[in-house]
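Minutes, project check-in
Item: structure for the 258-residue chain
Input as provided by the requester:
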Amino acid sequence: MPPPPGYGTTPSVPSYPNSLPPSTVTPSVTPPPGYVDPYASAPQPGAMSSYTPQGVTGYNNTPPVNSGAYATKPAGSNIVNFNNIEAYYRYMAPKNGDFAGANTIGATLTVSLMNPLYLKFGASWGSGPGGGGTVGGATKANYDFASIQAGVGFHTALINDKLTFVAEAGLVYASLKATNTSVGFSDGSIYVRPALRYTPLDWLEVQAGVTVSSADKYDSKTIDLTGYFRVLPMFDVGVGGDFGNVTRAFRTSLRLRW
């Protein structure tokens, strides 16, 4: 059998791109782009260069990123949310001259229902010392103060997501038991609390509210102001005060969101 055509001969292979293409190009061969030596020296000053400037690519340049600590939204839930538990220490100073200030601890639990409703539960307990050995303090009474509350509320954004209106209504029960004095009470009441929650920054919340209740033995009107600072994605530290017609208090709190 005779060999196939071209057997034993060396095929013709174009020598480019290592050399210039042939003067004539057959339809089956496409000439490569012009060859540029990457090691060629830079052009003299004033001359036009075909090289891309160093540090610049043909792609869209990435926009600058603000290097501030809170240039991007922090991870975790929104600082204004309605699924959280908060524990606090509260120093309560009764306006009644028979009592010294009380160290109070407490906690609140907020649980979101179908938007925009939520439930809120809370409890606190505090104890006030007597006046000690001083003559003026001998009239101060030892006392215990406790309260529990349960309520329901709703929330809605105002103007934009930075300002939220909140309204709560529920029941609160409070009692005070004291020694060395006839002052004391045990009473339940209905309360209503409208409030505003403002977030000027992703890591800061300012909350202000007014509580009005049917109580006649303790605070029936209270103004509260609190600032919360995000320190971890789901964890805040709060500092604030309560100013009522019977007591005034200053508190610090730890809040966990989810």
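Outcome recorded: Residues 197 and 207 are 4 Å apart (CA to CA).
No further action items on this chain.
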